[in-house]
Amino acid sequence: MVTWFENQIPKVVLAPSFVALLIFVYGFIGWTAWVSLTRSRLLPKYDLHGTIQYKKLFSSPRWDTAMENLLVFGVLFIVISMCLGLLLAILLDQKIRVEGALRTIYLYPMALSMIVTGTAWKWIMNPGLGIEAMVRSWGFESFSFDWVINPDMAIYAIVIAGVWQASGFVMALFLAGLRSVDGEIIKAAQVDGIPNWRIYSAIILPSMAPIFLSAFIVLAHLAIKSFDLVIALTGGGPGYATDLPATYMYAMAFSRGDLGQAASSAMVMMGVVFAIVVPYLYSELRAKHD
Amino acid sequence: MTDFAPMSPAATQNRNSDVQKLALRWLLFAMLGLFALFYLMPLFVMVTTSLKSLEEIRTGSLIAFPRELTFEAWRTAWSGACTGIKCEGLQPYFWNSVLIAVPAVLLSTGLGAANGYVIAQWNFRGANLIFSLMLFGCFIPFQVVLLPMAMMLGKMGLAGTIPGLILTHVIYGLGFTTLFFRNFYVTIPADLVKAAKVDGAGFFRIFWSIFLPLSLPIIVVTVIWQFTQIWNDFLFGVSFSQAGTQPVTVALNNIVNSTTGVKEYNVDMAAAIIAALPTLLVYVVAGKYFIRGLTAGSVKG
């Protein structure tokens, strides 16, 4: 009897979290999925009406803009952060005496709230008083840098701030990866007189493939969830020029009172995240079991 | 190698390669320095702008040092700036964030430790499935639970309250905290648990006497990770709070985007620094653990 009871303790300890997980994660996803198939407006309705919300979503120009922005922002944000992060990691890997201090400097933006980052860059890129005004005061009267208020360029302003925030993190990932490469192989290659750049491109980088993948997953995940940065930097504007799916969803849910649209856009976001993350997690979990 | 270069005396070649090495070294430092400037520039601009008067901001340059130091903007940001209708500065919202973050961090870390301990060392049928479900839960975009959570908080009578936000952060932080502890505890040999069982120690005894004393590093990592996440949260804060219970990030955004009166950039910058200070401080004091959390949280499943 005592042993039976003893055996139940682990399950009892895990139970509250498990119940919370079932209700607040999977149950809620189910709720959102259900509502995305109804005609809900201000209040949720539960009778199903097929894919009407998704049809409306995909024919909405605002959602189009949001998805296009996500593509532009996502690709640039991921590619630039990866390249910059890798470059910084390789530069820092050259036995620099002040490495610790530099690492601290490159990574501190990751500790900041996106709202803080957005506020700072909004001020720096303020056309009247920021970089534009500064360069003009140096004598380049025609210099123009109005990205934050220019509908065609504002999304690139968000890329700048995003890269500033996340690239140091990629650097930290890559640096850890560089350090974990077998030192003996590198020494052997150096003894053989193989130039440094060849050592990097032929030996070190290929062995870091899993880290590239992790960095990609994290950055993609950050990009899809990007909400605060846009809110703080451009508010989704001018107009809705810098809307992302996350800001679209929020606007539908809390200012437009269109629950059906909010739910269907959230489901599409989750679809995009899972299309990227699920194969990765699946392979990770399988690798563990084998 | 030099044996293969009979045309030039070895000495000259050595000197050439020395010069080359030195040049490369300088180039390396120049690049590292430039990047350091890129990362530091916004912080520098924030600090200097917050110490200038509005007059100086309008007439001076973005990157100039303040001619006259004034802490007026800091005082306003802390206790006088307007977030919409109210003009009490960031102060009340800063304390809201503290009231939200401290219990939420403690609860989610404690639960994560218990969950991780069970999953790593007391494997029962279905425990791995639960872990996989939790892991997938870490990656959902929160938008997908935002609406039902708002309704649930309403039904529980917690809509727009600080306990409601604490509950939200605990629940959606559990996946990561469990992951951290589970990955830490699987490295502890199962034989240790077996031996302790033979000696008659039970579930809780083994946790208190063996696992908890070993856990300090992972507790630090988890606490820092959770604190940073919760302090910097904006989505839950803006969705589930009401006037008076907003966390500091929401208040900061309201100050910056409040349209009434003259735009006080120095106050905006001071407010941004105040909102960033706690997490920056954690980063500076415990950067090592911060990085460990970042990499652990993002890499390994």
Summarize the structure.
Chain A is an all-alpha fold. Helices cover 73% and strands 0% of the residues of chain A.
Structure description:
The complex is a heterodimer of chains A (290) and B (301). Chain A is an all-alpha fold. Chain A has helices at residues 2-35, 52-58, 61-92, 99-107, 114-124, 131-137, 154-180, 183-191, 196-207, 209-225, 228-233, 245-255, 259-289. Chain A has one domain (61-289): MetI-like (MetI-like fold), CATH 1.10.3720. Helix content of chain A is 73%, strand content 0%. The radius of gyration of chain A is 24 Å and the shape is flat. The model of chain A has no long low-confidence stretch (mean pLDDT 88). Chain B has 301 residues and is mostly helical. Chain B has helices at 10-50, 54-59, 72-79, 91-121, 127-139, 143-155, 162-185, 190-198, 203-214, 216-232, 235-240, 248-257, 265-285, 287-299. Chain B has 14 helices and no strands. Chain B is flat, with a radius of gyration of 26 Å. The interface between A and B is large, with 96 and 93 residues.
Question: Topology of this protein?
Answer:
The complex is a heterodimer of chains A (290) and B (301).
Chain A: H1 2-35, H2 52-58, H3 61-92, H4 99-107, H5 114-124, H6 131-137, H7 154-180, H8 183-191, H9 196-207, H10 209-225, H11 228-233, H12 245-255, H13 259-289
Chain B: H1 10-50, H2 54-59, H3 72-79, H4 91-121, H5 127-139, H6 143-155, H7 162-185, H8 190-198, H9 203-214, H10 216-232, H11 235-240, H12 248-257, H13 265-285, H14 287-299
Helix pairs in contact in B: 1-13, 3-13, 4-7, 4-10, 4-12, 5-7, 7-10, 10-13, 10-14, 12-13, 13-14
In DSSP terms (H or I, runs of 4 or more residues), the helix count of chain A works out at 13
The coarse silhouette of chain A is flat
Alpha-carbon distance between the two ends of chain A? 36 Å
Backbone structural class of chain B: mainly alpha
* Number of H/I helices of chain B: 14
- Based on CA atoms alone, the radius of gyration of chain A comes out at 24 Å
CATH topology group of chain A: MetI-like fold
What CATH architecture of the largest domain in chain B do you see? Orthogonal Bundle
Q: How much of the polypeptide of chain B forms β-strand, as a percent range?
A: under 5%
Number of domains of chain A: 1
Largest inter-chain interface? Answer: A-B, 96 and 93 residues
- Might you state the CATH topology name of the largest domain in chain B? MetI-like fold
Radius of gyration of chain B equals 26 Å
Number of domains as seen in the coordinates of chain B: 2
The total count of strands of chain A amounts to 0
